[in-house]
Amino acid sequence: MKNTGIKALEILAFPCNQFGSQEPGSNEQIMEFACTRFKAEYPIFDKVDVNGKNSAPIYKFLKSSKGGVFGDSIKWNFSKFLVDKDGKVVDRYAPTTSPLSIEKNVKKLLGIA
């Protein structure tokens, strides 16, 4: 593939109802809410479990690659992982970490810092 110099960032959202029943709706209701309320313009996947024996494979991988401060479990919705283009988990961020506060890390990863 020819390098065109285009830098790309992809945001992926995985709704989960394991935290205070914040996502009780169907996948369609969740999608409508995210697109209406948050103006989401990124892929929103079907609802998954992020902890426990039914944890989605992507979360098993993410958690095993970057454990949290208090262990591997996801503590609350809006936990974030930064993954490079080769699928390596670069960092993990708490639910309270704002997306804007990790902008410098994203730019560094994209080579535009």
From TrEMBL:
Instruction: Give the family from UniProt.
Output: Belongs to the glutathione peroxidase family.
The identity of this protein, by name, is Glutathione peroxidase
UniProt lineage: Eukaryota, Viridiplantae, Streptophyta, Embryophyta, Tracheophyta
Instruction: Keywords in alphabetical order, please.
Output: Oxidoreductase, Peroxidase
Question: Which SUPFAM superfamilies does the protein's record reference?
Answer: Thioredoxin-like
Any one of the GO CC terms: cytosol
Q: Which domain of life is it from?
A: Eukaryota
What CDD domains does the database record attribute to this sequence?
A: GSH_Peroxidase
Q: Which residues form the signal peptide?
A: none
A biological process (GO) of this protein is:
response to oxidative stress
What organism does this protein naturally occur in? Salix udensis
Instruction: Note the coiled coil stretches, chain numbering.
Output: none
Instruction: List GO molecular-function terms, semicolon-separated.
Output: peroxidase activity
